[in-house]
Amino acid sequence: MWTNHVTLGTGALVVTAMLDLLTFALCVPYCETTDGKHFDILLEMVASRGRSLFKLFQHPSMAVIKGAGLVMRALIEEGTMEVAMRMQNLALAEGALPRHLLSALYTRPTDGRLLTLRQLSRHLIMLWITGHPIAMALLRRILPAGLLRFLDSTDTVPSSALEEERLNNRDNLKIAQDHAMKNRKGAQWVVIERQFKVVEK
Questions:
Q1: All domains of the chain, ordered by start, with CATH?
Q2: In what residue span(s) does the DnaJ homologue subfamily C GRV2/DNAJC13 N-terminal domain sit (predicted)?
């Protein structure tokens, strides 16, 4: 039913409600409470309807575009390599890469919602071109060579060019390190546990 509404351009409330459900089930930070097995199944089910998800990027509502972008980000970041490659290929086939490039470069930060959409577009472009030579070749044909060389620069970004981060990001390495530190026992407890094991034998 959801894909029918997306294809026909009807049922905006149904589409929005489904995107909200997917956002809370798959997107950071809400997905922390989703069971791993259900998360993987839902991720694969949404990935199989990739064209419908890309069609939502043409929706007149910014809330729908943002929801579709967040779900797309979850598909690429949390899904398998196959899913990521499929989404990268669909981004080219459906024309989403140029559309988001336009949004990422020319959206003026007059409204907080537009700023969030611009940051999401920039993040999606990065996900779509990483490790995809065809998308990178398209970017080379669109952007001037000097600008592309500037993107590879190692210089630090001036503080005046930085903007407030409006997207929730998940640092898996930091989460794993924090979890390990929290569960790590002190050296004295390890010695005491060894002594108890010796006494029990």
A1: 1-152+163-170 (1.25.40), 171-200 (no CATH)
A2: 1-197
